[in-house]
Amino acid sequence: MKQRIKEIDYLKCTFILLMIVFHLVYIGDKYPYAKQLVYTFHMPAFLIISGYLMNINKSLRAFLHTMVWIFIPYAIMESGYIVMSAILPVRERVEELSFGIWIEKLLLHPLGPYWYLHTLMVCGITYFAVDRLTRKSRDPLVLPIILSLIYAAESMRLDIVSLPNALYFAMGCVMQRYGLRFTSFFRPSVWSVIPFTILACFPENLNKSVPGGIAITYLAVSLTLTLFRFLPARMKTICAYIGSHTLVLLIFSPVFTITVKPLAGMFGFDPSGMLFLFTALAITVTGCFALAWVIDRLHLSPFFWGKQTMLQPFPGRNDKLTEK
């Protein structure tokens, strides 16, 4: 069995759950400052991890095969999201449906959380191409400089990707390219809670594009890794399992974050909103895994995910996961 790094899967689990929580409109509206804080670091951290894990040591055919099987579930779910945005009273509303609008949203400006997969594909293909062009260069600065310049052009000229998002992705790529261990760069430290709290108290820092926001992202990862040390072994295993299936949660979670909206009224007696939060989160996570299980059982995974089955067996005592 392919070995995985528990800390990274744990981080992916944490950040995907935070994404789901603050895609619950009721929670986002109830805790706007917390939402702004979480939005400062959770997807930037996810993009750094994505760049770090991007495997470009493949043939062109194998790499494009990987991209195709990201694009297919992305295209299916983004298309559904576009249609629903034209029907339901959502914030990212599409005023009218047309072929042109569908192509524009699908290929250039996706709606909902699927922008992440769009960014992953654009940045990943660019990274693969730049790596092939600069592989023979002995200057370690050539790849990050050229990669950053192309990302800037894709952002400012082509408008197909956000430059801050692309640069966070590039950070992970550079770490991986030059052999820097993730947990050597993002060092766990309980003391990170102090500067994190101080920075979080000032609204001007709650922006992933400013120095304060970059610092918050680093400190959030450091603090989250610190908490990992205190988790029971069973909880680490559960987090690792969820973290290894973040694509399932990203793809299907909008179906459930929309579906659970009426529950907010049922839990109106709880002014904190926590009962709704945990109930909605449990339903969303369970529902996402249930949909993936159904697709596996119907033998549709080869056509949706590009693999025989999407869900991996839950790790047993003899399954190997590494901590690094």
From TrEMBL:
One of its GO terms (molecular function) is acyltransferase activity. It comes from the Bacteria. Keywords: Acyltransferase, Membrane, Transferase, Transmembrane, Transmembrane helix. Residues 6-293 form the Acyltransferase domain. The chain crosses the membrane at residues 9-27, 39-56, 68-88, 114-130, 185-206, 212-231, 238-260, 272-295. The keyword Electron transport does not apply. It comes from Bacteroides caecicola. This is Acyltransferase family protein.
